[in-house]
Amino acid sequence: MMARPLALRWPRFMAYPCRISVGASQFLHQPHHLNRVRLLNIFSIFSKEAVEKERLRLKDELNRGYFDDLKEFKEHGGKIAIASKVLVPAMAASKFPSLVVQFTNGHKLTLPFGAELSEKDGSFKDAYVTLVCMTFRANAQKMIESWSEPFLDAFKFASEVRLCQVSYIDSSLLSFRPIRWLLLQAMHSPQVTNEGELMKQVVYAFGDSYDFRKALQITNLLTGYVFLLDKHARIRWQAWGHPTKEEILSMISCTSELLEEKQIAV
To answer: Who's near 261: CB < 8 A, 6+ residues apart?
Structure first.
C-alpha cells in the first residue's frame, strides 16, 4: 500500500496554504473552535515578540563582548563614573529589579525585599536601607570588598541597615543544579559576628543575567557595582569600581540621610 502524501498527514491544527472551504468556515464559526484559534493567534504573537527580543539581544551581544570590556577596563580601571555626593530624589530613582539569590546553605532569597529569612540568616523585611555590592567576574571581588568593609564599620550597630554582597554566575555549566550545589558547598564558610552587629550577607545568583543587566544598564562585566537602596527598593545612590576616600564619605553620608528620612516620615 502506498503511503499517503505528507500533506494529508499534517496535524489538524496546522493551517493549509489554500482557500477556506464552506466546511472550514462553519468550523471556525463554532464558539469553542474560535477560542482555539484565538489561542493559537495569541501564541504566534508571543512567538514573534520572543523572536524580536532574541534578535535585539543577539545584536547587543555581538556589538559588545569580553574584549570590549577588557579594553574599557584598561582605560578606566573599572571606574565607569564618579559616584554622586548626594542622593537621587525618590521620585526620580529607578527600582532595583527582582533577583533570586542563594546562600551557600541553599536558602533562597528574593532581592531586594522578598522572602523572609530566618533569624540565623538575618531578616531583610525590616531593612530601611540596603547596600547591594555586585560582581559578575571574580576579579571585581576586591572592588566591592573595599566598599563593604567601611560600610560595616560605619553602621555596625544600625539595626535597620543591611549589607548584601552578590556574585552573579551566568555560566550555563555552573548554573546546572548538581554543579551549582557543589559550588555552593565549596564556598560555604560560616560568618562569626557578635549579637546585634551588622552582618554581610554573601549570596549568589545563577543563570542568564541579560535582562537583569539591561534593567540596571550594566555593560562592563569586569568591574564591581554598588547600589544603595531605600525601603521601597529604589536606587538612591550608586558607585563603580574601587572607591576613593571622597566616595566612601559620600556613601556613609547618603546612608545616614536615608535613615534620617525614616525618622522624618515617622
So the answer is: 230
Amino acid making up residue 120: K
Return the C-alpha cell found at 154: 560605619
Cell of 253: 553620608
Residues facing 100 on adjacent strands: 110
In degrees and rounded to multiples of 5, residue 123 shows phi and psi of: -110, 135
In whole angstroms, what is the distance from residue 163 CA to residue 132 CA? 6
CA distance 142 to 144: 6
Residues 6+ apart with CB under 8 A from 231: 113, 127, 128, 129, 262
Residue 215, exposed/middle/buried by CB under 10 A (0-12, 13-18, 19+)? middle
What averages of pLDDT result for each successive group of 10 residues across the chain (266 residues)? 46 41 43 43 59 67 71 88 94 93 87 52 66 94 95 90 92 79 79 69 90 91 94 94 96 94 62
